[in-house]
# Entry
Amino acid sequence: MRKTAALLAILIGMSGIISAQSDSLQANRYITRATTLGVGYTNILDTYLSPQEYKGIEGRVARETMRMTKLFNGNVSLQNFFQANLSYTHNNPDNNNTFAGLVNWNYGLHYQFHINDHLKLLAGGLGDFNGGFVYNLQNSNNPASAKAYANIAASGMIIYRFKIKNYQLVARYQANLPVAGVLFSPNYGQSYYEIFTLGNSDGVVKFTTLKNQPSVRQLFSLDFPVGCSKLRLNYLWDIQQSKVNQLKTHTYSHIFMVGFVRDLYLVKNKKGNPLPANVRAY
# Structure
């Protein structure tokens, strides 16, 4: 009887070890999703519409998904980051206003360097896709300017986990720097009627580098528990600039955001189709 009990205990222990190993090999099923909303200050210049800067308020929404992959022995994470903003600005004489909006999508991979139990450094690359507009309320000819550009961006992160008393916090800094891409821009003095109706589209798509599109997106975030949920605070410093076809543009944004974080675990049904299930990943 004692031998049977001992054998049963050993089998239970082994099954626990096997289960833990299997779970560690499927770390890519753990997903972190965050949705944040915020407002802040923006400064816009588009010399196609006006030589003046326009300053005002911007609202922004962001949704981020991060998970590990099986690449390089499970040391590579995938980031899917979507954001959209809308702003209302005015010039210095306060006699004209603009509306502006932009949709941005980042999708890419980072290799994770585990320095210790608290600190991780991430390095990788992203696809950076953007589309939007600037609309000047008082321009009669060419009142709007279209924004469309895509880049390959270098990206890096610092993630630091720490505790204050019994509260687990996660601080992160991320910077995305576009290295090369393409950008749509009319030529100086050229109307969109000429481009899209008359077909005079020579030179409106330009190859971009850090020289003619010196831009960077920087994100600071802090995750901390609130009851049974996790809250995220973001500060986004977004600098988008270009100088092509004798036209200058920039958008400088300082945005404070707040939202919630969800930890998910991806399970599969009998047919092998993935089904998401809420879990606490602590």
Q: What stands out?
A: The chain has one domain: 28-278. Residues 2-25 form the longest helix (24 residues).
